[in-house]
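Hey team,

Filing this mostly as a record. A colleague (T.K.) asked me to run one chain through the structure pipeline before their review meeting, and I want the input and output archived in the tracker in case anyone asks later how it was produced. No errors, nothing strange. Just documentation.

Input sequence:
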Amino acid sequence: MNRFKTIAAPALCALSGLFAFGTAAAAEPIDVAGVRYEAAADVAGSQLVLNGAGLRKIVFFKVYAAGLYLPQPAASLAEAAAQDGPRRVRLTLLRNVSGSDFIEALDDGLKANLTPEGEAAIQKELTQLKAIMTEIGDVKEGDVVDFDFSPEAGTTVTRNGAPVGEAIPGKPLYDAVLAIWLGEKPIDGSLKKGLLGQK
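Output structure:
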C-alpha cells in the first residue's frame, strides 16, 4: 500500500477523528480549515448555491477541503443527481499529492460506488476522466480542482481555473463522480454529511 493510500487516499473508509462543516441549504459562506467556500458560484452561466462543505482529514493529516454547489439544496445523492442543471464539486488541496495517488484514489472511490454493469456502461467516459487526471499530474497544497457538470458540455475538470483536457459528454459519469462523496460507500461519512449540509 503506497504512502498516500496509507495516510490520505480519499477511497479509505471513514476513520475516527474525521470531521466536516456544513449547514443545510447554506445561505452564508463556509470556512473549512482556512479555505473559504462562498455561498454561491457561477457555473456554465448558472448561479449555484453552496449545499455544504467539509474537511477530509486522517489522523493529523488534512488532505483537502471540499464544497458542493447545486442549483437547489439536496439532502442525498439521489436529490443531487436528479438535478439537471450545472453542478460543481470543488476540492482545495491541503497537502501535496502525487498524480498517481490522486488517480488511484479517484478510481477506488468510483469502483466502490459503481456496480459492474454501471462501470461497464460508462467505461469510455471513465477512461477519458482518468486521462484528464493523468494530465493534471501532481497536485500541490493550495491547488483548486473543480469537477463541473453542465447539460451542454458534460463533465469538465479545471485546475486553478484552467481547463484540463476536453469536456466529457453525458450525465452518468458526473453522477458516478458525485457518488464518490455522496454514495452508499462514501470516501468519508463525515465529509458526506458536510457536503449534504448535515451537522
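Quick notes for T.K.: Residues 31 and 191 are 14 Å apart (CA to CA). Strands lie at 30-32, 35-37, 40-43, 46-58, 61-70, 87-93, 144-150, 154-159, 162-168.
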